[in-house]
Amino acid sequence: MLLERPTLPPVKLLCAYVLCFFPPPRPAPPQSSLDARRRRGLIAGAAFGYSQAILFWVFALLFYVGAVLVDDGTVGYKNFFTAMFAVIFGAFGVGQISSDAKDAGEGEQAAAKIFRLTDEPLNIDPLSEEGARPATTDGAVEFKNIFFAYPSRPNMQIYGSDKYPQGFCLDVAAGETVALVGPSGGGKSTCMGLLLRFYEASKGSVTIDGRDVKEVNVKWLRSQIGYVGQEPVLFQGTIRENIAKGDPGASDDRIQEAAKAANAHDFIMEFQEGYDADVGEKSALLSGGQKQRIAIARAILNNPPILLLDEATSALDNESEKVVQEALDQLQAKQKRTTLTVAHRLTTIRNSDKIAVLNGGGVQELGTHDELLALKGLYSTLWNQQTSKLTGE
Ligand SMILES: Nc1ncnc2c1ncn2[C@@H]1O[C@H](COP(=O)(O)OP(=O)(O)OP(=O)(O)O)[C@@H](O)[C@H]1O
Predict the structure, then answer these.
(1) Domain that holds residue 86
(2) What is the pTM of this model?
(3) Residue 203 domain flag
(4) Tally of structural domains, the chain
(5) ipTM score here?
(6) pLDDT tens digits, one per residue of 9-20
(7) Strand partners, 149
(8) How many other C-beta atoms lie within 10 A of the C-beta of residue 276?
(9) How far is the CA of 170 from the centre of ligand 1 (A)?
């Protein structure tokens, strides 16, 4: 079959030829990074040249000594070549070691980091059998006068400041939906980490049904809380296995029921293998919205008394956000459960029982949507900014 040649007007053809031979210059990288790369290149080149030079010096020396020894009859050719190859391979090995020295150094540094991490004393042991396991949970949560800084940044106080000498305080009644809003870095997600006991407050307490979370068993505590974050974690395996993590003994019918409630059943059935479809390494075979709905199905199956939604829909496009939001509404409607929601899009949380505006180390404003609008404070400013963007004013 003859392929037709693409026809270009002569001027465009000429431009294409010119660009082939004289491509426009690429923007130069910043000077500092260029210098660093040059320095790295020079060091690597010098090290390589040096290791090669050693090899050839050894060759030269060998042939010289060999020639002298064979000439005066001290050794025969056979012995000379045997010894020579032994020395060559030996030198080759030494050269190889020097080129691997950089990797060995990096490996040593990485190992030191791992050992530093594994030697870190474990204050919160997720596998510990200690601690109370109350038979029932109503789901009331309270953050009482919390002071907290992340261990890796001890000088950056997240909760508690001159503005908030009483620390971070928030009371969430059983079955209540409380939204956490406010500027980025205000500590909205951090309180979820404290409730899940990923970290411990330096002062104050987090309680669940009036009991300090430090007194209850960590595994039990986490089993009472469903978490749907911005980037849900799926495990390598099938969709069925991933949903079943919510309740490992669940029947296929219950898994399907949970998937239907999470608006996930239809897209799952579009896969050739249905519920047995593999989610792929790092769940690469699924879109963001699909991953989110599988995580929600898992939470529905778990049916926890406390639900944490940390910007669960913020990474999605409008269409996916709608279906995922419907799935989340289902999850909340299935049972009146305590829900803490972090959201940047205020339209998604306006119907919450309470809205807490976190800023500068504590709760700056607290109330319903209407109360906060009437307050004409930070929430009202954020709301007006977002709604004016939506209406294009
Ligand atoms: N693991 C961590 N180690 C150290 N600092 C952290 C860690 N996680 C969060 N931070 C810092 O703590 C502060 C509060 O973080 P947090 O995620 O709670 O804020 P946020 O209000 O949820 O912010 P955003 O709206 O941007 O998600 C931020 O300044 C953040 O950089």
Answers:
(1) 53-91
(2) 0.70
(3) no
(4) 2
(5) 0.96
(6) 666 666 666 766
(7) 157
(8) 13
(9) 18
